[in-house]
Amino acid sequence: MILDHISGIFAHPQREWFGIRAERRSKTSEFLQHVPFLALIPAISFYIGVTQVGWSLTRDSKVVYLTDGSALTLCVLSYGAALVGVWCFGEFINWMHKTYSEEASNPHHGMAMAVYVTAPVLIAGLAGLWPNVWFNGAVMMLAGGYSVFLIYRGMPILMNIDRDRAFLYSTSVVTVALVMLVSLRVVTALLWASGFGPEYRG
């Protein structure tokens, strides 16, 4: 079912991880039933925010807007980056599984971990409707913190490993997530330097 388990991962995460583990899906099915829809949230929200609401760095500075074309290009690129990022994150989780568990790897479980722990960050993209730098930063920090909590809470359940190994596994996954985030920022800077940077409305 499309977007199932999403509300449960917020309301009762421990119980929901057991339900996710019991699902009999392929990793592709898990990905396609969630990520393409969740990734639309920040893309659409920021498009509306930067073209219709605007932002300013200080209270007294001028409100800034992006042109429709520039905003559309940037939001489409960010949507694609979200899809690729979550898929690669799931692949990394599956790849690292053999280091921390002697059981056979179930590709669905690694992809499910990637999908559900990134869900809070993607949903927090609603903050883009008001593209204030400080507001968005605070919201993303809260969402990121909850994602880290989900990783540590869900790893021993979803991957069926003891808590000591799960802690090390979770720490490795968080590290990979941070590296991917930094890499995304670098790629973004390179794209901006290559002519895909924002264009402001006059």
Structural features:
mainly alpha
The gross shape turns out to be elongated
Number of helices: 9
**Main sheet, how many strands, which sense, barrel?**
none
Domain tally: 1
Oligomeric status: single chain
Distance between the first and last residues' Cα: 45 Å
Number of strands: 0
Specify the helix fraction band.
Answer: over 70%
Structural class estimated from helices and strands: mainly alpha
What does the radius of gyration come to? 18 Å
Question: Roughly what is the average pLDDT, rounded to an integer?
Answer: 91
Per DSSP, what share of the residues sits in E-state strands of 2 or more residues?
A: under 5%
Question: Topology, pairings included?
Answer:
Layout: H1 6-11, H2 13-22, H3 27-32, H4 35-38, H5 40-53, H6 68-100, H7 107-123, H8 133-158, H9 163-196
Description:
The protein has 202 residues and is mainly α. It has one domain (26-195). It has nine helices and no strands. Helix 5 (40-53) runs antiparallel to helix 6. The mean pLDDT is 91.
TL;DR of this structure?
The chain has helices at 6-11, 13-22, 27-32, 35-38, 40-53, 68-100, 107-123, 133-158, 163-196. The chain is an all-alpha fold and 202 residues long. The chain has one domain (26-195).
